[in-house]
Amino acid sequence: MTDMNTIVGTHDILMITLDTLRFDAAVLEEANCPNLCGSGPWEKRHTPGSFTYAAHHAFFGGFLPTPATTDKSEHIRLFHSKNTGMKTHPHTWLFDTPDIVAGLAAEGYRTVCIGGVIFFTKKNPLARALPAYFQHSYWRMTFGVTNPRSTEHQVNHALKLLENTAPDQRLFMFLNVSAIHGPNHYFVPGARHDSVDSQCAALRYVDGELGRLFHAFRARGNPVFCLAFSDHGTAYGEDGYQGHRLAHETVWNVPYREFIL
Ligand SMILES: [Zn+2]
């Protein structure tokens, strides 16, 4: 069980949302994802939001995906707002700010967002809302869903930022991976439609690129707490549903992992 009060202040924190990754696709690829699953399997969780915008506001408010079990007492939250009047666990880190990003900044963290999908593009006021949680935020065309090498470009950008961050500067880096979001059919040669298969192929590609990011974080010499999870899944025709921003188990069930790099 993670004691966040032994993490915050001493560890760099890397939060990765694997945008739109379905739980079943993630499980199918566990053996092929040595970077994300090298230290254990995915946990099945429920997301607090059915699409990117809703889910990420919840995450930044400290509401991460919750275990997909009926026993709520088992779940110890990593983050919780101070002074709500609710009883909290000693392992839960309490923040006295509107969100965890500002809370970590108040603890001396440099907060950095590397955007991926449309809600992080900063192209209009709505798409600036999520990046605005962070002190520094970045988005490029090459980070977006239409670029088949988006994760490579995102990781390259992250590596440059790491190079320019002093080792004693605590870092909270958030990365929204866009590659698994549609369109992802181009990860399967000849495929014309997105599917679980093409999500799986996209995930294998993403895992390969994340290896360089994990290596660079480790090279800083500080312990790193990594959170990797999906913001929501997506339906590929199950029960007639297509896409997300709807209530279906292909959307609510998400893969979740936390580990020390
Ligand atoms: Zn999303």
Automatic annotation (TrEMBL):
<protein>
    <submittedName>
        <fullName>Metalloenzyme domain-containing protein</fullName>
    </submittedName>
</protein>
<dbReference type="InterPro" id="IPR000917">
    <property type="entry name" value="Sulfatase_N"/>
</dbReference>
<dbReference type="InterPro" id="IPR047838">
    <property type="entry name" value="STM4013-like"/>
</dbReference>
<feature type="domain" description="Sulfatase N-terminal">
    <location>
        <begin position="98"/>
        <end position="255"/>
    </location>
</feature>
<dbReference type="InterPro" id="IPR017850">
    <property type="entry name" value="Alkaline_phosphatase_core_sf"/>
</dbReference>
<dbReference type="Pfam" id="PF00884">
    <property type="entry name" value="Sulfatase"/>
</dbReference>
